[in-house]
Amino acid sequence: MKAFAVFALLAVSALADTLPSVTICPPETQTIFVLQHNSTVGARIRTIPTSNLAECSDHCAASLDCQGVEFKEGSCAVFRAGSEKATKGSQLLTKSCVKSDRVCQSPFQFDLFEQKILVGFAREVVPAENIQVCMAACLNAFDTFGFECESAMFYPVDQECILNTEDRLDRPSLFVDEADDTVIYMDNNCAGSQCYPPYITQYIAVEGKQLKNELDRIINVDLDSCQALCTQRLSISSNDFNCKSFMYNNKTRTCILADERSKPLGRADLVATEGFTYFEKKCFASPNTCRNVPSFKRVPQMILVGFAAFVMENVPSVTMCLDQCTNPPPETGEGFVCKSVMYYYNEQECILNSETRESKPELFIPEGEEFLVDYFDITCHLKQEKCPTGQHLKAIRTINAALPEGESELHILKSSAAKGIKECVAKCFGLAPEKCRSFNYDKSTKSCDLLYLDGHNTLQPQVRQGVDLYDLHCLAVENDCSANKDDALFSRYLHTKQRGIPAKSYKVVSLNSCLEVCAGNPTCAGANYNRRLGDCSLFDAVDEQSEVNEHTDFYKNLCVTKEVDTGASAAANVPETKHRVSGTVVDNKDAKSQLLLTKKAKKPTIKNTEHRRAPESTVPLGPPVEVKAEAIQTICNYEGIKVQINNGEPFSGVIFVKNKFDTCRVEVANSNAATLVLGLPKDFGMRPISLDNLDDNETGKNKTKKGEETPLKEEIEEFRQKRQAAEFRDCGLVDLLNGTYKSTVVIQTNNLGIPGLVTSMDQLYEVSCDYSSMLGGRVQAGYNMTVTGPEANLIQPRGKIELGNPVLMQLLNGDGTEQPLVQAKLGDILELRWEIMAMDDELDFFVKNCHAEPGLAGGKAGAGEKLQLIDGGCPTPAVAQKLIPGAIEIKSSAVKTTKMQAFRFDSSASIRVTCEVEICKGDCESVECALTGGVKKSFGRKKREVNNNIEEFETNRYLIPRRSHATTSIVIIDPLQQVNEPVAMSRSSTLDLLREEAHEVQVIEQGSICLNSITVFAIFGTLAVLILGQAIVISHYAVRRFSTEKTA
Asked: Residue ranges of region Disordered (predicted)?
């Protein structure tokens, strides 16, 4: 901890050089502000009063002497270069410059943290000579790489910039300290205000609340216009405003736009304000989301008790939870209607309710302070929606153009034949529970493809002859005055501006308001609408005099002007999207992204290419399949606890350790077999191992010379720690302190498409292994076992370590995460990995031959079935066609890998791979392999000058045989009973808070002693015997004395 503190201080001291402050930005650059969390600021020049942080930053941007500002409670302190102590609780902004056209209008563009990193979401690595280049790369990521950069990490020493698809607010558990490198983490405040296909912009309302700091105010607009201004990112004070939420007062018609969200997913606090409703922008994936605003109503820190119909765990975001309410899982049944939702943020738990706070107000109660939870009411209830009161359904046509259907027709809800356009409009608007927003109409076949997206925002229509695009709008226009009586009110021409002097102009209005004004004016022939500024210009006459304009669309009024289809497309001026294909692999073995993908964190992720708004499941969806208990088996060895399923029918899902989904899982894609390897804890085998049962000859081999014992033990311990550090992963194994380890495994076969969630339909097993016999005596390396270190009897008196199997072979995930998992998914891509365990630079190895054979229960291989995988260092011709299409590659000085497609034999659901490995002194030469992609070099050939008579290599530390074998396999495990655990109050469906019952309580008076009845009888029986014995003795004595006196 002290080391990290010193490192952090050094990093902070170097920050001034990394982020130089400026007063004036040079030409071709844009001024930006960075929010910092320093304890010092520059020298104060002046202090001015401002109402909010936006005014403070605007003053600094316009000033020629300002390098930064400090804002607190209406006071804006302007400073230049210097070093003064910052005011506690203030916000510090530093001025900087970047080359980007994507700079948003906001008080600050980046939120900066020193010595912090976000683990697991690195998408691209780009070279950056300074932090300004890194910030520009993040702002331009959508144009350059095709994804929105949510955050970035700049490494000044290596001059590298890592672009992330998530930020710290979305993934707080993966936002961790960095003590190894100098790094600066930055949240991109310009991201998150737009939704990209296939996601829909929606709003969640909180009644009676607004953000503590308002940024912009627009008076006298309706709710629809206020929502449109935020969706289109408009504002009266700035262009391209980074709107993430808005507040609206229905009585005063006051609209307030904000570039911030409320906690816990934002930085701002909600405060109670009478008459206002807070609306937060979200991006939803479900096509069933509501068309009207809002989609959900949120109540913070409240829960509905007793009506949890469906509980899901490990749901990574609240929007994904709400998506499940609009698209209920099949396991809930056909008759289930989701009426409300609860989401526990820290537990990532999603609960779908069958009732609402209005139907059951007596059970709507506050949740405890130890939980962070929100309650949500759905507004449309998956039913057919209607236009708001006073509005009517109308269509906007885009001639000879179509909205992209998406990959595999993802955007299409339904394809339908129709008699005409009006029937398509009715079918689209009447569709439920899916919500159709537009359709592509094929004029030759008279069919329409109903789409859940529209062309209002980021998805641009494309030129397509013979097809017209229709977008649906609810407008305050009652009559159908269109020429064809098909409710097509306007014809839109994209990126086209009508020339001439407009008859009327309106500033900062929504598109619907602009169209309603034109439709209500009998002389309006069309309107120019500027999507960026919100300007509306009406024309009484239109001609062919038009010009291309990036931000303006022209809408021709079909009630006044007749349109003739000449074959020209209204989308002809739309520019093609030009950006590099996302997911490009950067050829840099030392890139920090590789480190971030393997760095140990509280909840690391194995998804290194996950997009913030991309589907999060890589498992194909299918019907849920029941995996019976007899299909599950277990085995315990030194590779750890392994869980394998060999089901009678294929299934799709995930097998993972409960509460450890991110670090211990295996996905199943339409396969009947899968294996999950739990491994062993880091401290496994650290208890002393007794050698009392060994004979003198065996123990004599373990002795070392005097003075060499301690260094040798240190070397062995170092070796063991390095091996365990490389192979350890958190699978939640619990040590029962008696040699037994256990963990809880979840077998999830639902088809919800969310990896890691736990539902009531899933199966839970407690698996355990007893290692007491192994830990209590000599450890024997049995067949099909891999010992993670040299055996004691291999340590020679001369102090060198003899490695009988110097090369370790493993099967890893093929997604680049290097998770040591044994996969059993047919067709999945795995990584076959060899690593030389002798930590000596002068040794190398090559993989000569490899074969696969069935692996059956008990460690016995299948008889007569073998498949030659590698021969002479190259994949065999048959195998190279599909199973191993590439050559063996060097990953590091000690590691070689190749990709292999998972397969199995008919006789067994598991396989064993055995490789013959040879060691060479110095670097091994490559061999050329004829593969399907051409001739490639494979590092599987020994050096020509090696003497074939050499059978052993000796270095300063090791004795290593020249030839050895390495084996890895998929083994089978055994099930145990299902376990249950206590749940939160909201998950219980039988809890009755109104029932009160009396309980009889036994009270013990002070000073009383309570004894068992048997003990009491024993005590009194013993006392009775003693008393009787004493009575007999006394009586006998009295009789004798009396008799003596009488005789005398």
From this structure: 603-622
Closest by alpha carbon to 571, among 493, 656, 666, 680? Answer: 493
Mean pLDDT of 65-90: 89
The answer to whether the beta carbons of residues 848 and 940 sit under 8 Å apart is yes
Write down all domains in the chain, each with its CATH number in brackets. 30-188 (3.50.4.10), 194-293 (3.50.4.10), 296-378 (3.50.4.10), 392-557 (3.50.4.10), 627-683+728-792 (2.60.40), 801-973 (2.60.40.4100)
* β-pairing verdict for 640-657 and 740-748: antiparallel
User: How many CB atoms neighbour CB 53 within 10 A?
Assistant: 22
- Beta strand 116-118 with 91-98 is unpaired
Round to whole Å and give the CA distance between 841 and 922.
8
Q: Are 725 and 304 in contact (CB under 8 A)?
A: no
SS (H, E, C) 285-322: CCCCCCCCCCCEEEEECEEECCCEEEEECCCCCHHHHH
Distance CA 255, CA 210 (A): 11
Q: Tokens 């990036």 — which residue?
A: 550
The answer to whether 684 touches 696, Cβ cutoff 8 Å, is no
Q: For residue 716, which of 395, 1048, 1024, 958 has the smallest C-alpha distance?
A: 958
Three-class DSSP category at 896:
strand
Contact assessment for residue 461 and residue 491, using Cβ atoms and an 8 Å cutoff: no
Q: What is the DSSP string of 357-392?
A: TTT-GGGEEEPPTT--EEEEEESSTTSPP-PPTT-E
CA distance 880 to 503: 72
Whole-model pTM over 0.70: no
In sequence order, which residues have a C-beta less than 8 Å from that of residue 725 and are 6 or more positions away? Answer: none
Q: How far apart are CA 135 and CA 111, in angstroms?
A: 11
Residue bearing tokens 């913030």: 612
Model confidence pLDDT, tens digit, residues 969-994: 755 343 333 333 334 555 444 334 33
To the nearest 10°, the Cα dihedral for 631, 636, 637, 640? 90
Residues in the chain: 1048
Cβ 927 vs Cβ 940: under 8 Å: yes
Among 5-19, 672-686, 1007-1021, name the one with the lowest average pLDDT.
5-19
Structure tokens at 857: 């229960």
Residue 514 has pLDDT above 70, yes or no: yes
How is residue 836 annotated by DSSP?
E
Q: Write b or e for each residue in 407-436: b if 16 or more Cβ atoms lie within 10 A of its Cβ, otherwise e.
A: eeeebbbeeeebeebbebbebbbebebbbb
Q: Of 399, 554, 562, nearest to 471 (Cα)?
A: 399
Q: Is 634:640 a contact under the CB 8 Å cutoff? A: no
**What is the dihedral sign for C-alpha 471, 474, 480, 482?**
negative
Residues 681, 979: Cα–Cα separation, whole Å: 22
Residue-wise pLDDT tens digits, 384-420: 788 888 888 899 999 999 998 877 778 888 888 888 8
Q: Which of 166-175, 510-519, 777-786, 956-965 has the highest mean pLDDT?
A: 510-519
